[in-house]
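Study the following:
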Amino acid sequence: MAIKIAQASDEASAIDALTLAFSVDPMVRWSLPDPAKYLATFPSLARAFGGSAFRTGTAYFADGFAGVALWLPPGVRSDEESLMRLFDENTSDDVKEDLPGIFEQMEKFHPTQRHWYLPMIGVDPAYQGAGLGTALMTEALKVVDRDGLIAYLESSNPKNISLYERHGFEVIGEIQSGSSPVLRPMLRRAR
C-alpha cells in the first residue's frame, strides 16, 4: 500500500477521512457527543490540532484517503488559540469546566526538547485492521529516525496503545480531568 505526502489540494479529503476515523474516539466524542455538532465542528478542530502538517509537507495519507497521519515537525505547534475558541463555542458547560485541566496536563507532558509531534492519526472505520495505521506510522517514523529525534503523541483510545507500542512509543503518564476519559501521553525515544 502506498503512503503519500498530502498536498494542499488534498487537505479536504484528508480531513474528511479523519472525521470518519475520530467519530469513535473517546476524548473527541466526550467533548462533542452530539453527532451533528461533531460533524460540524471536528474538521475545524482537526485543522487547528494538526493542519500545519499540510503546509510543512508532513501530512501523510494512504491510497484513497483510507488513513491519514498529521505530523508536526520540530518547532511547529498546534493552533492552541483556535482550539480553545472552538471548544469554548461548541462544548457543554461540563466539558468547558474540565478542558483547562486537560490542556494544562497535556502541556506538562509535552516534550520541551526538539521533537516530532503526532496530534492526529486515523483510519476510516471501513478500513481499520488492514495495516494502514502501521503503514502510516512506519513511513513517518523514517523521517523522525533520520533526524535522530524523539516523537510524542497522546491517545485516548486504549485500542490504539498497542499499535504505538509496536513502533517504540511508551506510555509516560495519564491525563484526566473531571468526567473526561483518560488520555495517555506517549513518548518514543530517539533512534
About this structure: The first helix runs from residue 11 to 21. The chain has one domain: 3-188.
